[in-house]
Design brief:
Layout (H helix, E strand, L loop, with lengths): L1 H20 L4 E10 L3 H9 L18 E5 L8 E5 L6 E10 L3 E10 L3 E12 L2 E11 L2 H9 L2 H33 L17
Antiparallel strand pairs: 1-7, 2-3, 3-4, 4-5, 5-6, 6-7
């Protein structure tokens, strides 16, 4: 009887392993939103890691997480590491390519709770009513991630974070437009009699 149970268990494990290895070897998760602001307002929110905590969906998971910035202030070569509680873990992000107001490519390295290296991209394009922002993450599926994906909908889990992040990005961008407009209205006129500095205006 015990041999039959063990045999059945072994067969089930082999079937599961066989199914897992047939899962896709790579993944891409992405979400898109239209932000009612010019691209010149939203692009810097991603291109400058110092501003990520204003909109990142993971910033609120650990207010005490430690951030360390290195490289240029923004753009290609800029990098930052984070370490925090079990919800945010530990890792590093580095901007590997930055095309002004068009696309930002980021090398995303997870250290804890699991090791992985993925690629994140932010694409910006004109859209009716503002700027279309697409946030994507792609990478290779290991056996562990394939097995995890059998039981969890990773696209839904990560996609929900992306949606929250894009919604927060919209709020921050709109606040920036309002702040710039108020500053421009309060500034003394220049020699030509106009405002000292024109602020980006929402479409």
């Amino acid at each position: 009887m015990i041999k039959k149970i063990l045999g059945g268990l072994a067969a089930a494990i082999l079937l599961f392993v066989g199914f897992v290895v047939t899962r896709p070897d790579s993944f891409t998760y992405q979400r898109t939103a239209v932000l009612p602001v010019p691209v010149e307002v939203v692009f810097p929110l991603v291109n400058d890691f110092h501003r990520w905590n204003e909109w990142s969906p993971w910033a609120r998971l650990d207010a005490e997480q430690k951030l360390t910035f290195s490289g240029p202030e923004s753009g290609t070569g800029a990098s930052y590491t984070w370490t925090g509680n079990d919800q945010v873990g530990e890792g590093r992000m580095t901007i590997t390519d930055s095309k002004a107001n068009e696309q930002i490519t980021i090398k995303l390295e997870f250290i804890r709770p699991f090791a992985a290296t993925n690629t994140s991209t932010f694409s910006f394009s004109p859209a009716e009513g503002g700027t279309q922002v697409t946030w994507a993450m792609s990478g290779d599926n290991t056996f562990i991630s394939k097995a995890f994906g059998v039981f969890m909908d990773m696209d839904a889990m990560i996609g929900k974070d992306f949606e929250r992040g894009l919604a927060s990005m919209k709020e921050v961008a709109e606040a920036d437009v309002k702040k710039h407009a108020e500053a421009a209205a309060a500034a003394p006129p220049d020699a030509e009699g106009g405002p000292a500095e024109a602020a980006p205006a929402a479409p």
